[in-house]
Each structure stands twice: as C-alpha cells, then as structure tokens.
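Justification of computing resources. Each target in the renewal requires a structure prediction run like the one illustrated here; the chain below, 106 residues long, is used simply to show the kind of job we budget for.
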Amino acid sequence: MKQYVYDFAWGITRYSADIGVKKLPKERIFITHDPTATGHQNSDKKTWSPSVNLYYSDDFFTTKKMALNNGNSIIKTEHYMFIAKATKKETVEIHVSSAFLGFLNF
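Resulting structure tokens:
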C-alpha cells in the first residue's frame, strides 16, 4: 500500500467497537510513513526523524490524512494510542489519544 512505512496499527479495537465510536470505521489504518524517502529503507533506524509523519486512511490508502506531523512511532492499546513525535533527532514528545476520540486529536 505504501513504501517507507515504519509502524502501523489498525484503527479499531474491541473496546472502541464496544463503546460505539462512530467516527472510527473498521477499515481505518494508522501508519508512520516518510513520504520524502528514496532508495533503500533504513531498517536500523537509530534516530528520530522529523520527516516521518503519522497518517491514517479509511480506504486502504487510496487517500490518506495526516494525524500528527513528525509522528515517528506507534504504541496502541485497547483504550489509548501513544505516538512519539520527533522534535530533534535525539528528542521526542509523547502524544496521547483515546478510543473515545477515535484515536485522533493528539
């Protein structure tokens, strides 16, 4: 679907489906993706990258929307999604969203 993807997570969880989050379609996928990358993808990513962003799509990436600029890494549970946002190559901020928010609005 996309090249230069570092992390991905399905949007819906059992919990978000049980509470009936209306803005969260079952096809939603989150990815961290570098749209500027070319050549060989670095599988040994040792630094945070401001060119990697968090995107989501509800149509298997026919279209995509940016959820968080500089969003590098995803950790997702039934209730929360945590995103490491690169501020520099050595520093990140942790952003959080909940199932109640459709795992958006960081």
